[in-house]
C-alpha cells in the first residue's frame, strides 16, 4: 500500500522503512502552512511509539520513527506503514481548524545591499524595471516566514516575498559567500555557508546563521519570522569585526 488518503485533501506516502510524509497540498500557501503547523503541534503532543522527529516543509510534513519500536506497538495494522497511517488518520480527525498556532519568534537580520556583496542587485532592478533603492525597500519592508529548513545546514526557505521581486534563478550556479542574501522565484533566503548557489544575490548579512559548535547551531527554525534591516557598508564592516 503505497498511497493513502487522509481526510479529503491529505495523502500519506512512505519515504523509507522508518519515515512517511503527509502531503497537504501542492502550492506555497499560508493556509496550507497553518494546516501543517496544527497537525505537527498535535502530533508532538500525541506522538506514537517509536516516533522521534518531524520535519515540516512547504506543503508536507515528514515523520521519522524507529520501525523496531513501532511494529511492536499496539497500533492497528500488520506493518509499520499501516500502523503509522492508521494512527495519523485518527489523529487528523482530532485537528481543530480553530486551534491557535503559537506565533514564531521574530528575528531581525541586518543586510548590506548591493556593492560587491550584492552583485545581482542591479540585475533584479533591471529585470523588474525599478530602481535598486526600490528593490531594497520592497525586500526589507516585508516580514517573512520560515517555511522549511534544508539544502544545507541552517538554510531557511523564506516565504512572503513581494510579488514585484519574483525573479528567476541563475542558469548556472556560482559560489557565494556565507551570509549572502538571495532571491529565487517567490522565495528569499540567506546562505549560512559558502557554497555554490543559483539564487540572485542582492546583499550580504554579517550575522552568523549556522555554527555547529553551538548548542543550537542554526539561528533560524521552521515557523520563525524574519525581518531584514538595511545597513550601511560601515555598519556591515563594524559588525563583522565585532
Structure notes:
The structure is a single chain. This protein has 242 residues and is an alpha+beta fold. It folds into two domains: 4-92, 2-Layer Sandwich (Gyrase A, domain 2); 106-241, Cyclophilin-like (Cyclophilin), CATH 2.40.100. Helix content is 25%, strand content 30%. The protein contains six helices and 14 strands. It has helices at residues 30-45, 67-70, 80-92, 121-128, 132-141, 233-241; strands at residues 4-6, 10-16, 19-23, 51-56, 60-65, 106-113, 143-149, 156-159, 174-176, 180-184, 187-190, 195-197, 200-204, 225-230. The strands form three sheets. The chain has a seven-stranded mixed beta sheet. Strands 1-2-3-5-4 form a five-stranded antiparallel beta sheet. Strand 1 (4-6) and strand 2 (10-16) form a beta hairpin. The chain is elongated and about 60 Å long. The relative contact order is 0.15.
Helix content range of the residues, please? 10-25%
Number of domains: 2
How much of the sequence lies in strands comes to 25-35%
Molecular shape: elongated
CATH topology tier name of the largest domain: Cyclophilin
Tally of separate helices: 6
Low-confidence stretches: 1-8
- What is the correct CATH architecture of the largest domain? Beta Barrel
Query: What's the average pLDDT?
Result: 90
Q: Please state how the strands of the largest beta sheet are arranged side by side.
A: 8-7-14-6-13-10-11
Main structural class = alpha+beta
**CA distance, first residue to last residue:** 56 Å
Major sheet attributes: 7 strands, mixed
CATH superfamily assignment of the largest domain?
Cyclophilin-like
Oligomer: single chain
- How many runs of DSSP E, i.e. beta strands? 14
Top-tier CATH class of the largest domain: Mainly Beta
| SSE ordering | EEEHEEHHEHHEEEEEEEEH
